Amino acid sequence: MVEHTSVDLPDVSALTIGILGGTGDQGKGLARRFSLAGHTVLIGSRSAERAQEAAREIGVRGAANAEVAAEADVVIVAVPWEGHKALLESLREPLAGKIVVDCVNPLGFDKQGAYALPVEEGSAAQQAAAVLTGSRVVAAFHHVSAVLLLDPSVEEIDLDVLVLGDDREATDVVRALAGRIPGARGVYAGRLRSAHQVEAFTANLISINRRYKAHAGIRVTDV
Q1: Per-residue confidence at 8, pLDDT binned at 50, 70, 90?
Q2: Which letter, b or e, does each residue of 104-138 get, where b requires 16 or more Cβ atoms within 10 Å of its Cβ?
Q3: pLDDT (tens digit per residue) in 75-106
Q4: For position 70, what pLDDT does the model report?
Q5: Where's the Pyrroline-5-carboxylate reductase catalytic N-terminal domain (predicted)?
């Protein structure tokens, strides 16, 4: 059992969390867990109707991405890699000044399985930072199993969430948010320039999960 401590972290219990791309399993899973933790959660999609439909499934509110970006205190980006840059470019203004948490994994798939895709900026998180120059971009939540997040029989998620960023206050907020999910812990894992290997490691986890029929995550020892 890992002992979790939040003595050095801010109180984030009152923050409203928005999730762009919240109609996918990862987004819905995070929305469900943060809602259960007492947060006001908004699910976003290109289609407000689709967002509202997905939101009803887990008891939160759905709206168009732009509305979610404007209303939320912290915004999590959980969109498919293919639409990542275009979406963020369209939301520069409502995301200005906000903590934006990027959990997108640029992956490809072939007969041999999952593999990391090259990203011009270095990583999805660095691409987000390059687009959202007025936002505080943090990378986190890459390795959280959507299956476990959505499973009502799973009360705790046995996981360390690796949090990366160049803004100490922003990474502390995201570490604290990770700890709002029972069983999880946020661990600072470096600056944003190191996000590539964290995103890419998701391909290794997919291989582990396929071989062992599991929903593996990461634990960091001795911290």
Answers
A1: confident
A2: bbbbeeeeeebebeebebbbbbbbbbebbeebbbb
A3: 999 999 999 999 999 999 999 999 999 999 99
A4: 98
A5: 16-106
Structure confidence at residue 97 (pLDDT): 97
Which tokens sit at 212?
């062992």
Domain 17-212 in CATH 3.40.50.720? The answer is: yes
pLDDT of residue 53: 95
149 touches 29 (CB < 8 A): yes
Q: Read off the pTM.
A: 0.95
Two structure tokens written together for 162: 């690796």
- Distance in angstroms (rounded) separating the CA atoms of residues 84 and 71: 20
d(CA 126, CA 143): 18
Tokens of 86: 């275009």
Per-residue confidence (pLDDT) for residue 105, from 0 to 100: 98
Dihedral class, residue 61 (left if φ above 0, else alpha if ψ from -120 to 50, else beta): beta
Dihedral angle over CA of 150, 192, 98, 141, nearest 10: 10
